[in-house]
């Protein structure tokens, strides 16, 4: 009996197994014009192929709540009707494969306006350079020397952001998604507010822990209000900035203790699962990565708060994934790069573990 291929229920939604696809930017949408941010054939085949491969839940790439919230000009967005319509074709295809369509909704904040990763290593685009624009953030602090210094968000702009996340969630529901994940990780806007490293505000949205977490909780509440009670909301967090783990680094950042405290609050506000990643907020930190290196952060949240967790990062083997679930370290594993290499990884894993998994009828002769 495989734990990895046991179904998992959150609210009224049952996800057929615990091997899920992590959100991954494809930088393949039109940068301007009527098709700006609209998913096309590349996104369709990319997401549908992993669903046909037996993956239990498919998360879209970071999908921006507004044009300036995209990471690169080529990112997906969900702020207009054309985008909403186009996503419907993808959610239908995922559901037809017995998989669950989920969407990660995001704002890049100060890390916005970059090239695609395969062009000049994804270097920042200055405002007006190509399709580049002026980024915004909690505080006017550039990510690094190459990035543009962002404009500090005003109180009105912050209120508008909360509405944008809610509007995108409403559109996601209309497009057929069954899970919405708020991107609070990897140094993007919500993460920038959470961490004292990037949030130097002196108003109600900066300073104390309560103030730094305010925007994230307002977004969660606004999304929860438009998202049906029978469907789950996920939150992706960077459990640490990796500043406090380094004895030689005395800069203040977001810590694993903060994550545990915040997970309890997210749970009270109606978040159903913490997708637990790390890093991305400070560029020059030391990270000791190894297979499954982020799993202990997920495990700690699960054990100390009872909130369901997803584990992600360098999970590449069936038995490794099986052990994480069987040992109770996480409720699900999210795979990124291994699913790029192997779209049918879930079917290979099921075979190795002697478990049943969805295989399209068209492929039954291969079994
Ligand atoms: C091409 C690519 C794009 C990514 N885009 C996103 C994204 O849009 N949102 C996000 O939260 N993480 C993103 N990530 C991080 C992955 O979701 C995942 O956390 C990371 O790759 C570690 O998992 P892995 O070792 O299984 O690849 C991306 C990773 C890759 C490789």
Structure description:
There is one protein chain. With 367 residues, this protein is α/β, with parallel strands linked by helices. It is 32% helix and 15% strand. It has helices at 41-52, 81-96, 155-174, 189-194, 209-212, 214-226, 256-268, 295-305, 318-326, 337-341, 345-353; strands at 8-10, 13-15, 19-21, 57-64, 100-106, 136-137, 151-152, 179-184, 233-238, 273-277, 308-312, 332-335. The protein has an 8-stranded parallel β-barrel, surrounded by 7 helices. Strands 1-2 form a two-stranded antiparallel ribbon. A two-stranded parallel sheet has the order 6-7. Helix 1 (41-52) runs parallel beside helix 2, helix 3 (155-174) runs parallel beside helix 6 (214-226) and helix 7 (256-268) crosses helix 8 (295-305). The model has no long low-confidence stretch (mean pLDDT 98).
Tell the overall outline.
Answer: globular
Give me the strand/helix succession. Answer: EEEHEHEEEHEHHHEHEHEHEHH
Radius of gyration: 19 Å
Find the structural class using helix and strand composition: alpha/beta
The span between the termini is 20 Å
Helix amount, in percent?
Answer: 25-40%
Average pLDDT, rounded to a whole number, is 98
| Major pleated sheet | 8 strands, parallel, barrel
Bound molecules: flavin mononucleotide
Strands of the largest sheet, in order across it? 3-4-5-8-9-10-11-12
Strand content: 5-15%
Instruction: Pick out the low-confidence regions.
Output: none
Find the count of extended strands (DSSP E, 2+ residues): 12
Give me the number of helical elements. Answer: 11
């Amino acid at each position: 009996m495989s734990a990895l291929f046991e179904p998992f229920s959150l609210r009224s939604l049952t996800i057929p197994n615990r091997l899920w696809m992590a959100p991954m930017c494809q930088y393949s949408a039109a940068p301007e014009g009527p098709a700006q941010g609209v998913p096309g054939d590349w996104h369709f085949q990319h997401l549908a192929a992993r669903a046909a491969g037996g993956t239990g839940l498919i998360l879209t790439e970071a999908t921006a709540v507004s044009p300036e919230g995209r990471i690169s000009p080529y990112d997906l967005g969900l702020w207009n009707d054309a985008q909403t319509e186009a996503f419907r074709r993808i959610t239908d295809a995922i559901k037809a494969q017995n998989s669950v369509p989920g969407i990660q909704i995001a704002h890049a904040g100060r890390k916005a306006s970059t090239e695609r990763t395969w062009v000049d290593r994804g270097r920042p685009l200055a405002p007006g350079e190509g399709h580049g624009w002026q980024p915004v953030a909690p505080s006017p602090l550039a990510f690094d020397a190459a990035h543009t210094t962002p404009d500090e968000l005003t109180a009105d702009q912050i209120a508008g952001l909360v509405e944008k996340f809610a509007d995108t969630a409403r559109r996601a529901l209309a497009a057929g998604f069954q899970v919405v994940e708020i991107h609070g990780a990897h140094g993007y806007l919500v993460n920038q507010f959470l961490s004292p490293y990037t949030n130097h505000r002196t108003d109600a949205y900066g300073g104390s822990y309560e103030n730094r977490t305010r925007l994230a909780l307002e977004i969660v509440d606004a999304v929860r209000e438009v998202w049906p009670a029978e469907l789950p909301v996920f939150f992706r967090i960077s459990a640490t900035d990796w500043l406090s783990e380094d004895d030689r680094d005395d800069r203040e950042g977001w810590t694993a203790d903060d994550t545990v405290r915040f997970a309890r609050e997210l749970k009270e506000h109606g978040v159903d699962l913490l997708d637990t990643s790390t890093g991305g907020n400070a560029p020059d930190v030391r990270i000791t990565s190894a297979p499954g290196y982020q799993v202990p952060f997920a495990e700690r949240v699960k054990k100390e708060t009872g909130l369901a967790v997803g584990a992600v990062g360098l999970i590449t083997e069936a038995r490794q994934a099986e052990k994480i679930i069987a040992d109770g370290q996480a409720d699900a594993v999210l795979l990124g790069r291994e699913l790029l290499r192997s779209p049918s990884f879930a079917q290979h894993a099921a075979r190795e573990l002697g478990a049943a998994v969805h295989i399209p009828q068209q492929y039954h002769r291969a079994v």
